[in-house]
Amino acid sequence: xxPDWDRRFxxxxxxxxxxxxxxxxxxxxxxxxxxxxxxxxxxRADVDEVRVRLAVxxxxxxxxxxxxxxxxxxxxxxxxxxxxxxxxxGCDQFVGFACPSWPDPVDRRV
Length: 110
What we know:
With 110 residues, the chain is mainly alpha-helical. The chain has helices at 5-18, 20-42, 49-72, 78-89, 94-98.
C-alpha cells in the first residue's frame, strides 16, 4: 500500500456512508470478495468448507466493524490505528479457526 492509502481509504469510507448507491456497491464488492476468498481457500484438501465460509464471514464482519469505527474516529492514528482496530475486532483469530493446520497468523516469524 502506498503512503497515501489511509487518507484515500478514509475518504472512500466517508463517501460510501454518505451515498446509498456507493454503500450498496461497497457491500456488493464485499460479498464478491468474500465468495472469491472462500472459493480459493476451500480448494485445499485439508480445509472444511463450512468452517472456511464461517471464518471468512466473521473476518469480513470484524474488518468492516474496524473500518467503520476508524472512519467515525476520523481516521485518527492512520493506518496503524486501523490495523490495530482490525486486530482488536478479532481479524487475526479466524484464520486458525478455518484452517487449523495452517501456522498461527499471530506468529509473525512464519
